[in-house]
Amino acid sequence: MSDEVFDAIVIGAGMGGMCAAARLTGAGKKVLLVEKSPYLGGRCSHRTREDCEVTTGALMVPMGPRSAIREAFDAVGADMDMVDLTGRMRYRLAHGDYDTPDDGGGLYGMIEFAMQDEAAAKALYQQLLNALFEWTPLSSITIHDWFDQYTDNQEVKNLFNGYAAALMGVNLYEIPASEFFGFLKYSSKGSRFGMAREGNAALMETLAAAMQARGSEVRRQSGCKQILVEDGCVTGVKINNNEGQDQIIRAPLVLSNTGPDKTVELAGGEAAFERSYVARLHTDAHDAPIMHASFVMDRPVMEGFDGCMVLGNTRNLIYLEIPSEISPSVSPKGKYLHTAYGAPRDAAKPDLDREFEIMLQELEDNFPGVSEEATFLVKAKHRGQSPGMHRWIGRGMPVNTSIKGLYNVGDGAAPSGTIGTESAAASAREAVAMILKN
Q1: Whole-angstrom Cα distance, residue 64 to residue 428?
Q2: Interatomic CA distance for residues 192 and 62, integer angstroms
Q3: How distant, in Å, are the alpha carbons of 103, 178, 205, 355, 382 from that of 290?
Q4: Does 112 share its domain with 148?
Q5: Which of 131, 163, 187 delimits the end of a domain?
Q6: Which residues, given as ranges, of the chain have pLDDT below 50?
Q7: Is residue 270 located within the same domain as residue 303?
Q8: Per-residue model confidence (pLDDT) at position 273
Q9: Counted domains in the chain
Q10: Shortest CA distance to 265 belongs to which of 301, 236, 304, 226?
Q11: d(Cα 183, Cα 411) in Å, to the nearest integer?
Q12: How far apart are CA 31 and CA 21, in angstroms?
């Protein structure tokens, strides 16, 4: 079989890979996207369990006009069929629940609710405004250190720890202050979030179909065995195609959504890369593990709740959503699909088996009856090669590498101030902009 030739090859159909392929396709490039599994989307996909569409990770997906995800869909004319959840947030602390108001003012309201002291809340809120618009704290301290300067109120720290862990997968004392405020200032302002009406897998299939309609290709069950490099330049990839045969495919551009460590392995190991790149690869190289439980019940654990709950009264349980209350099509009639997430207290050295059990107990403590009434569809611990995020916020690798034509996309190469699925899409935006500029 003669070698096929493309303008670019994208390895991995996670959010970063999908968005990179879409942007390149929209720019007129003929792209091959290869994915080792039968599914598209990575942590932004779904699997069908007991007739329910259960997420593989992402629940709230950015959908505003400035979102890097929306831009990628727009690049190939793909529709995002979403239910807008912007502002539909509930925060739980030891003394009760707080729903963000429809008319704005949620940040101050959260602080006052947590502190139960109007004067103290106003003082802390002013310090937050100063950090956003006057002096942005540096990365030399964590956001926990920053809060310690201005308050000893544990409830407000619990609230923001739940907020940070739910969005970023790590705790206040693991997040550089500059990254937290950078996110609040640049990424969260004016953003909109939603849930895919038919599930994330349907969203990714829509994007793939739009790319293929413009001449690019998506090949599933085609794992990359090697990134080919000659004289410091990428020349293509070797894949094991869906017929089980090895195949060489040529391209002057390869964008890897496999995580920075796997990219290095595929491209010949550390010896193939410049030393400063390898040194950065090993600096602060922690992944962010996450714990995931999806379950179905004959009733919702909260009547009439169709938003997103962040918990600050717990050790490990951080987030709960009832997807079937938002879009009934994701579960059978009369069945209520729930998804909960937990984060370890020490993301660098987690004890996930023990902490998962704590998370399940905290589910029962907060929502009595779950342990007896629920049918669990997923109990998962995402870590290692398939973590919640490949690297902590603020510690991503650059999108370009020391090998010409080789790029990383995905949450392991997240641009500063971005998080989660948006960070993966933002890495694709940055990488493609760099490619098109050359």
Answers
A1: 17
A2: 6
A3: 33, 23, 25, 10, 5
A4: yes
A5: 187
A6: none
A7: no
A8: 98
A9: 3
A10: 226
A11: 15
A12: 6
